[in-house]
Structure formats: structure tokens, C-alpha cells
Amino acid sequence: MTEVTISSGAVRLNGELIIPPGANGVVLFAHGSGSSRHSPRNQFVARALREAGVGTLLFDLLTVEEEEQERRTRHLRFDISLLANRLVEATRWFDAQTATNRFAAGYFGASTGAAAALVAAAELGGRINAVVSRGGRPDLAGADLIRVTAATSLIVGGNDTEVIALNQEAYAQLRCEKEIQIVPGASHLFEEAGALEHVSRLAAEWFLEHLQRAGPRPI
């Protein structure tokens, strides 16, 4: 694991980059509300992706000071523009590193991080090859949904009925290659036995297909 520091304007964001041997791409994680790069669910999915041969970059979308403010006011978790901008800056940092800039790239977003991932993917166009949303709020990407070109998979728990409806609305607006996957019996956080394993398997299959298809970037 390589500890990294990503600059985004005046702030510095901490992260961890792990690329397994022979990886065909790297997935940048956009965590959700009140979370961080240490999210046990995202760490679980990241391990599964690496075992499948995909690199991962998990990083904090907010600084320590912003996290403290967020715990008190809960105002930053829905600032999709801020979160998306941080993800775009992380991608540009990724592209500036000689060790990583040749890799195809994808985004994995959870909760409001899914909206940030889709907005960032819309801005970066063909640079982002695939997006996976876990229990996300892609509807919060708004008008940017129709601009997304990255192949997008929306994964939702079968018992998360309100979020299923919001995902279906967003799915209808997407114009890219897309799918919506319902995990039977799973709640919003996929805490049920086997649910997160199911998510990880679906995510790995999606990223492997679309990152392999993209292939290495010409440098």
C-alpha cells in the first residue's frame, strides 16, 4: 500500500493506493455521507476488487476539519459539487503520476458519493471508463446524468425501496451503457449475510469487463 496526499485547491486529502500485479485498471472510491477512506464496507469491496485484479485508490473527500464540521452540521454530505470537484482533482492527480497514468480508470461511489462520481464522470468524459454505485443517490447528479459516457452499474438493496425508486429515475436519464442490479433481501447498507459479497462480485465483474475493454492508455 502507498500512502498518498492529493491536492485539491488549498486542501490536502489523504489516501491509499494499492495496485496488484497485472492490474488492468484502477478504481477511485467516492465514499458517502459521514464516511471516509476507512469505511469498512468500501474497504471490503476494495479488497475484493484487488483480488479480482483491479487496483484501488481510496481517499478522504473531506479534510479532518471538514469532517468535524460535517459531524455537527451535516451540510457537506449533500454538497455534490464540492465532492465531485474533489474527485475530479484526485483523478487529475492520478493522471499526473507516472506510476498510474497509463491505467484505465473507474469510480465506485456509495450514498451521496455515487452522485459525485457521476458528476465527475460527466465532466471527465472518456477518461472514466466505468462507474458503480452501491446504495447510491445517483438522482442527486441531476442534469449531469445525461452527460455521463462511462458504463454505469447501479446496485441497490432489494429492501431499500425508496432508494430503488430514486435509482430507477436516474437510470431512465442515463444515456450510457447501463444496468441496474437489485440485491435480494439487502437493506441500504448491505449488512445482511452475503449481501456485501454479492455487491463486490457484481462490481468486480463490471469493472473487469469495462476496464479490460478500455485497455492501457497511450502515454
Short key terms for the protein model shown above:
single chain, 219 residues, alpha/beta, Rossmann fold, 6 helices, 8 strands
What's a concise summary of this model?
The protein is of the alpha/beta class. It has helices at 40-51, 64-73, 80-96, 112-124, 161-173, 195-214, and strands at residues 2-8, 11-18, 25-30, 55-59, 104-110, 128-134, 151-157, 178-183.
* CA distance, first residue to last residue: 24 Å
Please estimate the helix content: 25-40%
Strand-residue fraction? 15-25%
Number of strands: 8
CATH-assigned homologous superfamily: Alpha/Beta hydrolase fold, catalytic domain
User: What is the helix/strand order?
Assistant: EEEHEHHEHEEHEH
Give start-end ranges of low-pLDDT stretches.
none
Shape: globular
CATH architecture: 3-Layer(aba) Sandwich
Order of neighbouring strands in the sheet with most strands: 1-2-4-3-5-6-7-8
Highest-level CATH class: Alpha Beta
Number of domains: 1
Which fold name fills CATH's third level, the topology?
Rossmann fold
Instruction: Give the class from helix and strand content and strand pairing.
Output: alpha/beta
Mean pLDDT: 91
What summary fits the major beta sheet? 8 strands, mixed
* Number of helical segments with 4 or more residues: 6
SSE diagram, text form:
Layout: E1 2-8, E2 11-18, E3 25-30, H1 40-51, E4 55-59, H2 64-73, H3 80-96, E5 104-110, H4 112-124, E6 128-134, E7 151-157, H5 161-173, E8 178-183, H6 195-214
Parallel strand pairs: 3-4, 3-5, 5-6, 6-7, 7-8
Antiparallel strand pairs: 1-2, 2-4
Helix pairs in contact: 1-6, 3-4
